[in-house]
Amino acid sequence: MNLKKSVVFSLSVKFAAILTFAVVLIISSFFMFLHGISRKQETKGLMRPVHFIEGGLETKDYDGLKKKLNELPFFIACRIYDADSHEEFFVKNDKIPELPLTDGKSRRIYRKKFFDDTDLNIVYVAEKITLSTGQSFVVQIVQNTENDAGRRIFRGLPLSIMLAAIPILLISLLLSLYITRKTIKPVVQITNAVNSITSNNLETLLPETSSGDEIDTLAHTFNLLLKRLKKDFDRERSFTSNVSHELKTPVAVILGQANLIRRWGKDEPEQLEKSIATILREGKTMESIITNLLELTHLDLNSSTIQKEEFELNELLNNLTEEFNSIAPDCRIKLNRLQNSTVNTNRELLHQLLTIVLSNSVKFAGPDCQVTIDSTIKDKDIFTIRVCDNGPGFEKEILPYVFDRFFKGDKAHNRTQGGSGLGLSIAKSIMKALGGTISAENAQTGGALIRISLGC
Predict the structure, then answer these.
(1) Residues 106, 21 contacting (CB under 8 angstroms)
(2) Residues 100-120: what's their mean pLDDT?
(3) Domain boundaries along the sequence of the chain
């Protein structure tokens, strides 16, 4: 596996970097906090002698003041001088020069080779105090930090943090690799399982843990996808098989009749005429199947580009009734009209849909054919067309399949008229393209009832 492209490695590196940064930031913030407290305590410690000196100068207890100052630790230097004349009042460690005022805060000074044998590395306060008499003094308290262990720790802190960050980074990287690999393992399993699935084993589903987490949701989503794919593949396999079967019969008949013509057609005109008529009939059957298949494909591909228009539904139903009166004069078609029948949909597709439904009713209703067409509009939003015939209707067990491609209910309905079994399937595709619904049921009178619902 290429580590640069590995999600596990990438996540682990990011996690380790973030963790290391967070640890370093916390440690640095903690030491900065300690450093701030140390500076404050340092300033308080240096200002304490200043306040003591100010009290001694104010009370003019010079002997007691000098005695106390001489008792200061060896690493503390002191200088008191007149603010105006710079005349020295008291000096402890005269090597320390006069320093700038600090205004109540401690200040650090580091000067390399300031003395002959050593550097100047001090922290000090220098405050100007004014007595009640008006006389002003400058008090300078200096602490040597050359051998201050705390200062050395703070100075070495950046390097210590950098050195500590390396093992933290390595340990966090190893831990994150382990955790991430364990977390991503179900995804890897899903990937391997999906890669092993082909069109021949779509029934194979991914394992689900029912934990409800994102990985389980992903597996569940994949399983739903696989079920849909299997359903589509099965439908396409069935469709291909049905197409082959439907075309095989007329092709076999045409080839058989062609052989009869080749053998006896020249000598028997009657056989020639009969064979030619059979070939033409079977050719028209094949043409009808191919035309219907092309229509289904066209509807599937262009369902999103259907153009709609406003028109009178009563006018369309009147024209349709007149067409069928001339095509099937023996069938009585009853039309119940609406008062206000303005609808907004594709006129040609709706006409084609109703033609398919009416043709189906006329074809299978029997010799005493009677078809009733009712139309209603509900809440000015949805119009419904009901086409009901007086035929034998549908048997209950085949109702879920009447809109499937190549489904034929002749045997179930005791109908022998034949057909390609694509008519109602095309009707369903048209309704899908128009955004409506179509359903089949049995009317209370016993005939077949097709219900069509569309938005106005």
Answers:
(1) no
(2) 81
(3) 3-159, 214-301, 306-455
